[in-house]
What we know:
198 residues; alpha+beta; 7 helices; 5 strands; extended
Amino acid sequence: MAMRRVCGVSRKIERATYEAVPFRFIAGNQHPDHDTLATFRRTFLLELKDLFVQVLLLAQEAGVLKLGTISLDGTKIHADASKHNAVSYKRLLELETQLRAEIEELFRLSEQSDQYNFTDPQSRIMKNPTDAAFEQDYNAQVAVDQGSLLIVGWALSNHPNDSQEAEPTLAAIPSAIGMPEAAATSCRVCWPRDLDGV
């Protein structure tokens, strides 16, 4: 799906309503701005999740989705954060003590200070497989039915490698459509301990 909580994605969807035929078709040749798209997603997130399951059930009913063998794989998704803003827990405690002292001083002087945290706290520093650089990322996994090529489940984590991702990705497949007969995974995902829970 073209949904993520980062504002930049809403801008990409807005741009796609001008440049990509499938997006133009879905948007009825309208071009909602990124703020409207982000507000819509936030407002209807639960309904969109239910809609995802409904689409899979319709595909199953129409005979398009038979849920035989699925493929599992993942990729790193760049987080809206900077690795330079990431700190260790020990350093975080030191910063907390320092900030508390600064805040006390500010209150003592009756001054107000706005403080913003631009770091995405759920992301993690991960090695980018493309250029071996380290970036703030998420680890996204999808399960795709090999027969219909429909995405039947997905998972998002902050684990730097894929070794623990098979089970949560399989668990994300809606129970209403059943369980796959088999799963093909990339060598990065499939570890013997992963298969115990599957």
